[in-house]
TrEMBL record:
It comes from the Bacteria. SUPFAM superfamilies: CheY-like. GO terms for cellular component: cytosol; protein-DNA complex. This is LytTR family two component transcriptional regulator. Residues 3-111 form the Response regulatory domain. It comes from Epilithonimonas xixisoli. The modification 4-aspartylphosphate is found at residue 53. PROSITE patterns: RESPONSE_REGULATORY (PS50110). GO terms for biological process: regulation of DNA-templated transcription. GO terms for molecular function: phosphorelay response regulator activity; transcription cis-regulatory region binding. It holds the Pfam family LytTR. Keywords: DNA-binding, Phosphoprotein.
Length: 235
């Protein structure tokens, strides 16, 4: 069962959404009618997505959405917000009065996104340890092997390294979560979650080099724009 959090300033709207969610097999973890309280608590709530009303006093749903990193379904009675809503790359935009069938379509979009993300959380490949399951969130840095250019060396969070056998960066990018990994040169790829500093020609990761200093890597001119775009899209 997917889990959601509701934010709407109207208590009747919250009650109606809760009823629809229950009928559509979506668990409402918590509901808020105050945007400021919602923002104070949302980072500590485990949920798959948020349903946000747009038109609210004090702070509207568009402003709230810019401050959180959650999948979002907007609800509103005002069609003029549609363009702004989709500029924020939300999952869906549902007009009030909300119909059960229309909300179900929005929930199906969320489930599809969650399913796609789940597929890319790990993959299986031949390594120097034999056939292994690799969890994407454990990877910090990937580089072309100096021993055999067809292989890739993975540096993991615990500072250990493993070798992926006979795997191109193109194929590797298809196996990894697209939103979290970016190639910075012909021979290197990094997990963006571990980038601490990015300049026009260099990144600094949160792991150490052989001398015990933060690891610095050069960003080639060919990949510079896509690195910048990937990092900006995460903000």
């Amino acid at each position: 069962m997917t889990k959601c959090v509701i934010l709407d300033d109207e208590l009747l709207a919250i009650s109606y959404l809760k009823l629809l969610c229950d009928e559509l097999n979506v668990e409402v973890v918590k509901a808020f009618n105050n945007p400021k309280i919602f923002l104070q608590e949302i980072d500590n709530i485990e949920c798959d997505f948020c349903i946000l009303d747009i038109e609210m006093p004090g702070m509207n749903g568009l402003q709230v959405a810019e401050l959180i990193k959650k999948k979002i379904i907007f609800t509103t009675a005002y069609k003029e917000y549609a363009a702004e809503a989709f500029d924020l790359n939300v999952v869906d935009y549902v007009r009030k009065p909300i119909k059960k069938e229309r909300l179900q379509q929005a929930f199906e979009k969320v489930e599809k996104l969650l399913s796609e993300e789940e597929k890319n959380t790990f993959f299986e490949w031949n390594t120097n340890l034999g056939k292994s399951i690799i969890f994407a969130d454990q990877i910090v840095y990937i580089k072309t092997s100096e021993i055999d250019s067809r292989d890739k060396d993975l540096v993991l969070k615990n500072d250990s390294e493993i070798i992926l056998k006979n795997l191109s960066f193109k194929h590797l990018s298809e196996l990894l979560p697209e939103k979290n990994f970016v190639q910075i040169s012909k021979k290197e790829m990094v997990n963006t979650k571990h980038i601490k500093v990015f300049s026009s020609s260099e990144i600094i990761l949160d792991i150490k080099d052989s001398a015990g200093n933060p690891l610095k890597l050069s960003v080639s001119e060919v990949f510079r724009d896509q690195v910048s775009e990937k990092l900006l899209s995460k903000n």
